[in-house]
What we know:
Blueprint: E1 7-9, E2 17-19, H1 38-63, E3 67-71, H2 76-88, E4 91-96, E5 109-113, H3 119-133, E6 138-141, H4 156-184, E7 187-192, H5 195-198, H6 207-226, E8 232-238, H7 245-250, H8 262-274, E9 282-284, H9 285-288
Parallel strand pairs: 3-4, 3-6, 4-5, 6-7, 7-8, 8-9
Antiparallel strand pairs: 1-2
Helix pairs in contact: 2-8, 3-4, 4-6
Amino acid sequence: MHSGCFETLIPAGGSIIILLPSSVFELKSWRMAKSYDSSCIAITLILLFCLRSWNLSSSYEKMVNKTVIVSGASGNLGTAVVNFYLDRGDQVIGLVHRSGGQPRNIANYVECAVNLLDELAVEECVKQLLEKFGKIDIAVMTAGGFAMGDLSDTGISELEHQYRLNFETAYNLTKPLYEHMKLNHGGRLFFVGSGQGLDTSKGKHVVAYSLSKSLLFQLSNIINADTAHTGIRAHVIVPSIIDTPRNRESMPDADFSKWEKPADIAAIIAKYADNHQSDKQTIVVKDELK
Length: 290
């Protein structure tokens, strides 16, 4: 942009550079500015102020602690997500099917036992959490399950079981959080998909699992279409094989070094939760780790 007294350049990197006449920097006092176009200088100062304010607000946004809710918080990926946000100093709410094990004596962690398949129980749980914390900024839904089975082995009961584990658990939590985020004009929802859910042609040996996971991509589409140009965004994380004790036990001869670490996936989730400029919906873990 050229106004006759300054130029604004926008290079490929996206930074804005304002070029002033060199003589402006030679002014000895503001009185001498009268010999220049006062409106030109005023516009320049406003632009500089806006850029500075944007940088400060972006830094402030990153510094403010978030409230993060994680379903399946006792699982391998759920635990990694919980630990990541706790280490960062955020308020973390862990949803588990039943309380057990060694309790976390951490000030910024709350664990809630709730049946994610019970729609009313989940609604009440979210209501109580919002009364306590005021807002929830990020939801990471890691609860789910896996089952083998091709078309000939997969009946309605197997379909329903995987549907309930992988879709209903996410949907029941998403519904009340989505309404809350719309009122708050912001929030991030993360679903854990799969390669077979992203491309169901790869799911011939895991039919029920593939179909149930595919619905998470469709739900994400619906949410993002409904909240375009708002502060709400839904993402689907797509891991391949996650390095967990159970997977190592079931595939002892595999090369574990090629598997994806839960901590790395947690960091990728946080990266996109913090990046409010990204509209990327499907996040393939192996691509992020390259």
